[in-house]
Amino acid sequence: MNKPVMPQSSLSVKLPTAGGQIETYRLAASRTFPAKLEGTLNRVAFSAAHTVVDPLADCDPWLTSAVDWDRTIAFREHVWDLGLGVAEAMDTAQRGMGLDWPTSLELIQRSVRAAKARGGALVFSGAGTDHLAVEDARGLDDVIRAYEEQIAAVEKAGGRIILMASRALAKLGRSADDYAKVYNRVLSQVREPVIIHWLGDMFDPALKNYWGTASLDTAMDIAVGIINANAAKVDGVKVSLLDKQREIDMRRRLDENVKMYTGDDFNYAELIAGDDKGFSHALLGIFDAIAPAASYALSLLAAGDEAGFHDVLGPTVPLSRHIFKAPTRFYKTGIVFMAYLNGHQDHFTMVGGQESTRSTLHLAELFRLADKAGLLSNPELATRRMKTVMATRGVEP
Predict the structure, then answer these.
(1) Is 86 helix (H, G, I), strand (E, B) or coil?
(2) 50: which residues sit within 8 A by CB, 6+ positions away?
(3) C-beta neighbour count of 47 within 10 angstroms
(4) pLDDT tens readout for residues 244-275
(5) Whole-structure pTM value
(6) Taken in order 77, 80, 84, 87, is the CA torsion positive or negative?
(7) What distance in Å separates the CA atoms of residue 200 and residue 243, rounded to the nearest whole number?
(8) Is residue 196 within 8 Å of residue 186, measured between CB atoms?
(9) Which residues are CB-neighbours of 369 under 8 A, at least 6 positions away?
(10) What pLDDT is attached to residue 29?
(11) For the chain, which ranges sit under pLDDT 50?
């Protein structure tokens, strides 16, 4: 349960400020959350989970990745303990951004096995077309075959599907008919209903003009039409546009049997809480970094304590907006940094060397916001690690 929130603790760390100065930042007193789910949930909530690399492997980090499988699966166990599902091999795991398809498939296979060993913990896994180089995609049939290959591999592993957006389709698709051809064909073959992921170009610039148009209004019409026409094959839709009203509008237009999974890392608290016309479930990258708080807040919401839900989840939103600020595609750096601060891995090293994509000032502000939201599970450890990182970036402890 929560401890009383006191003004400050005795811990401090020197951090840079935007004005080029160094301040002594004193931490707030800690706030703790249960390590396992207490109660029940009335929302389906997935954490899109990150991948832990082996920092001592002999590899070229920009070109190849070496995964620490034990720590990677241990993090998923942590997420499952909290009653959340794992969205596997998505962009949070750096899929298509350093993590290739063969490694992604091994990650999916290992994660599905671990979920089954727990008696069926919730895991859905990304199936896309990223093994097909965009320049090699000559027509829509190439895109369809690529989807079919990955879907078959995930289903062979016993996994459920998140149908990822396709860079190749973004290149080739010019009309609603093009997208309908691909999605209708692919969805007709899936074994179980899938989650469709609409990932905005702020997350991946190669997905610009997805659904065959630069107009988001038209894109919404096309997406809703395809999804509702295939409602029996669609569990839900994850929308990652960072646009609260568009998500609400789409949610109200979906077939009643199709769930909306918010992918809005800026406005998730109010979208999950919902209104008198409905609510969103969740499939969020930020839930990787704030899993204990998210689990506890969701349990309060299920118990009818909406004020408690907002009291816990509301303070996490400024941190999420900071982590996902433009260029949004670099948000994974903040996610992994939080995992390092909270002891889920012993290093701040990432697939593709992406620990370098955010500035020292960015990491300093992340630390402040995480502390203010009560998200540092072991403040003493987090402070020691922050001092180490700051020292390597020229801030003397």
Answers:
(1) strand
(2) 75, 92, 93, 94, 288, 332, 335, 336, 339
(3) 30
(4) 999 999 999 999 999 999 999 999 999 999 99
(5) 0.95
(6) positive
(7) 10
(8) no
(9) 318, 319, 322
(10) 79
(11) 1-6
CB proximity list for 49: less than 8 A, separation 6 or greater: 75, 76, 79, 86, 87, 88, 92, 93, 288
What Cα–Cα distance (Å) separates residue 194 from each residue in 221, 251, 258? 20, 17, 10
Q: What is the pLDDT of residue 7?
A: 58
H or E element in which residue 93 lies: none
Dig out the tokens for 387 from the structure.
Answer: 């001092």
Kindly state the DSSP code that residue 200 receives in the 8-state scheme: -
Which residue matches tokens 């620490």? 68
The runs of H, that is alpha helices, within the chain are: 69-81, 101-117, 140-156, 167-172, 176-187, 216-229, 244-253, 268-273, 286-289, 291-302, 306-313, 317-323, 331-341, 360-372, 379-392
In DSSP notation, 23-82 reads: EEEEPPPP----SS--S--SS-EEEE----B-TTSSS-TTT---B-HHHHHHHHHHHHHT
| Confidence (pLDDT) at 362 | 98
Q: Give the β-pairing of 160-163 and 281-284.
A: unpaired
Q: Tokens representing 47?
A: 């954490």
| Positive or negative: CA dihedral 262, 3, 377, 107 | negative
Q: Which of 45, 2, 70 is nearest to 280 (CA)?
A: 45
Distance CA 394, CA 45 (A): 40
Cβ within 8 Å of residue 229, ≥6 positions away: 180, 184
Cis peptide, bond prior to residue 327, ω within 30 of zero: yes
